């Protein structure tokens, strides 16, 4: 059986499984760190957890 990843009507994966989200958040964290973007607390290194927290505070998908 293949697991389906639920999507909003807009096609985003805001209901994605934890593993998928963590991989995407880790990639975002690496990119932000490589580009020298400071974390919300002024740190130099982003983590997937920090990215997740920032995304949680962002406006949720309303589709």
How do you describe this structure in short?
This protein has helices spanning 18-34, 48-57.
Account of the protein in words:
Helices cover 43% and strands 0% of the residues. It is mostly helical and 63 residues long. Helix 1 crosses helix 2. The longest helix has 17 residues. It is globular and about 30 Å long. The N and C termini lie far apart (28 Å). The N terminus is likely disordered.
Topology (SSEs and partners):
Elements: H1 18-34, H2 48-57
Provide tags for this entry.
2 helices, globular, 43% helix, mainly alpha, 63 residues
Give the SSE order as H and E letters: HH
Task: State the share of residues found in helices, binned by percent.
Answer: 40-55%
The percent range for strand residues is under 5%
Q: Termini separation (Å)?
A: 28 Å
Largest sheet: none
Which structural category do the helix and sheet elements fall into? mainly alpha
**Gyration radius over CA:** 14 Å
Shape: globular
Determine the number of helices (DSSP H or I, runs of at least 4 residues).
2
